[in-house]
Design a protein that fits this description.
By secondary structure, this protein is mainly alpha-helical. It has six helices and no strands. The chain is globular and about 45 Å long. Bound molecules: zinc ion (ZN).
């Protein structure tokens, strides 16, 4: 007879209806973290295939990281070491997009980041290739 594992020990992708709880909101208020922005980045992490045993705890870690990095509104969060995809939060943040369009710009951006270019170098390369307009500047 096989023992059933506790639900809490099972890794899962982010449930569709998952939302931050009161503790998250309280933390965001206290440390002046943009909850909406962090949530948008966090949810797009799902596209990179992230799984968690406890999404509430994972989001709290994300908020703590955001508080440490002290991002201003609209500023991309620090890029962690992983394989970027066209829809991952780093690509979307860099392109100032709320959602992935699945176009060549996103694929190219992910490739450049995966090749080890910095955010600045990636944006410069995209401009050079004519994929983004000169008017699309980084928010610094
Ligand atoms: Zn990424």
């Amino acid at each position: 007879m096989v023992e059933t594992r506790k639900a809490a020990s099972v890794r899962s992708t982010l449930p569709d209806g998952w939302m931050p709880n009161d503790r998250h909101a309280e933390f965001a208020r206290r440390f002046a973290v943009d909850l909406t922005a962090v949530l948008a980045f966090f949810k797009s992490t799902h596209s990179c295939g992230a799984t968690s045993r406890n999404w509430d705890a994972s989001f709290m870690r994300e908020l703590r990281g955001a508080a440490r990095a002290a991002p201003r509104h609209g500023e991309p969060l620090r890029i962690v070491d992983h394989s970027h995809t066209y829809a991952c939060r780093h690509v979307l943040a860099l392109l100032s997009r709320d959602a992935a369009l699945g176009d060549g710009i996103e694929y190219r951006t992910a490739t450049l980041l995966n090749d080890g270019l910095t955010e600045h170098e990636t944006m410069a390369q995209l401009r050079e290739e004519g994929l983004i307009g000169a008017g699309m500047e980084e928010t610094t």
